[in-house]
Specification:
Shape: globular
Number of helices: 15
Radius of gyration: 26 Å
Distance between the termini: 86 Å
Largest sheet: 3 strands, antiparallel
Length: 397
């Protein structure tokens, strides 16, 4: 009814206003920003960050905080001398463009690590908060992060859900599976996800939204059936995701399906959209989704949290929807995609996959299925020989 819709919208407006004001006061407390900066540095600082060696460039520059000089209203930190990644010389130098683009890719990898691995995310990586710092002793440059007023915390279930959603959208074009993940993403209440009629309506609405926000190569779209993209010899075409339209599309679904858009979800989309926008100012063909997809595949195979949702997604990706058996064509495409979009050889990708728990389990299932298949062929062969022998004996009699 009209009254119900009005009440829902009013509730959303009140929640949004409360969230906005809480974030404003949070950013005004410089002691909170000091804590955020140190938390971020402990992970990603190129000096001592615990995961710096896993990032391109060996981590990022994070300004040192001088705690003894900081108060609620005063923040004292190290001065970082650098330039914006979008700032180029008057005479455009392609090497400079290439270097800046490389740093933006580093920022995207760092953001994916924050978003999908550790759940500690710099929520405002715009052009003024990312600097290119050139070494005084060499010509090499390093990426620096500034402004830690908002550091979003993303629950592990949401991180797993995002990984699965990316893989299902790109690899399988399975919008229904993505709709089922919305509970894991904290976007929908369980009463909507668990209701078959509501989930079917959501899948239809979400398909329409994805047609608007995903741009595929000519002749391809998200509306193609899952079976049309299963197996095959072709590599997966990665669509372009219009981050600016993604939130608009989801917001339109709020009144109908009682969507909840947590602040970290909005911050995530905005952060990725901002970084891609910076990259596109240097390279109009840049596609952030092409970095997200192989990252998601790797996380699904590793499944470090042991998530049953991630395990179910992997099984869904590699098994035939008709027989339920492992589809060797899908497994081969998974391997090809990982090699193509990471730049590594298939051999290295295969070795790396076999080092992960998910990869070992998948390899074991493939071998077991093949052994059973060979065993059945042998049984059929022996049975055929026995029938032929009996038939020959009968003719002799």
């Amino acid at each position: 009814s009209i009254s119900d819709t009005s009440r829902l919208i009013n509730t959303e407006l009140v929640s949004a206003t409360d969230e906005f004001m809480s974030r404003v006061f949070e950013e005004m407390d410089y002691r909170n920003e000091a804590r955020n900066a140190k938390k971020f540095a402990n992970l990603y600082s190129n000096k001592y960050g615990s995961v710096r060696h896993a990032l391109p460039g060996g981590g990022v520059i994070v300004p040192e905080i001088f705690d003894d000089m900081c108060t609620e209203n005063v923040l004292v930190m190290e001065w970082i001398e650098g330039s914006k990644l979008t700032s180029l010389s008057e005479e455009v130098d392609q090497n400079e463009v290439k270097e800046n683009l490389s740093l933006i890719k580093q920022a995207l990898y760092c953001t994916l690590s924050q978003l999908l691995e550790f759940g500690c995310m710099h929520a405002d990586p715009h052009g003024g908060n990312l600097l290119k710092v050139t070494s005084s002793t060499s010509s090499s440059s390093t990426l620096a992060y500034l402004d830690f007023g908002i550091l979003a915390t993303i629950p592990s279930t949401v991180r797993d859900g995002l990984v699965c959603a990316v893989a299902q959208l790109v690899f399988a074009k399975d919008v229904e599976a993505v709709a089922s993940l919305f509970g894991e993403l904290d976007l929908l209440e369980s009463e909507v996800v668990d209701d078959p009629k509501e989930r079917a309506a959501l899948t239809k609405a979400l398909t329409q939204t994805m047609q608007e926000v995903l741009v595929y190569p000519a002749g391809e779209s998200i509306s193609l059936s899952k079976t049309s993209t299963a197996g095959g010899k072709d590599n997966t075409n990665i669509p372009e995701l219009k981050f600016d339209k993604l939130l608009d599309g989801l917001v339109r679904l709020v009144p109908r399906f009682k969507f909840q858009l947590p602040p970290y979800f909005i911050n995530n989309a905005r952060a990725l959209g901002t970084l891609e926008g910076i990259a596109r100012s240097l390279d109009p063909e840049f596609n952030a989704f092409s970095l997200m997809y192989p990252y998601a595949l790797n996380r699904i195979l590793e499944n470090p949290s042991g998530s049953p949702v991630v395990e179910a997604t992997l099984q869904n990706m590699v098994r035939s929807s008709e027989t339920g058996k492992i589809d060797r064509g899908k497994v081969a495409r998974l391997l090809r995609d990982s090699a193509l979009y990471t730049g590594f050889s298939k051999r290295k990708v295969l070795v790396d996959i076999l080092k992960t728990d998910g990869g070992k389990k998948l390899a074991g299932e493939v071998v077991l299925q093949e052994v059973k298949h060979i065993g059945r062929l042998r049984w059929l062969f022996r049975r055929g020989r026995k029938k032929r022998k009996n038939s020959s004996t009968y003719l002799q009699l």
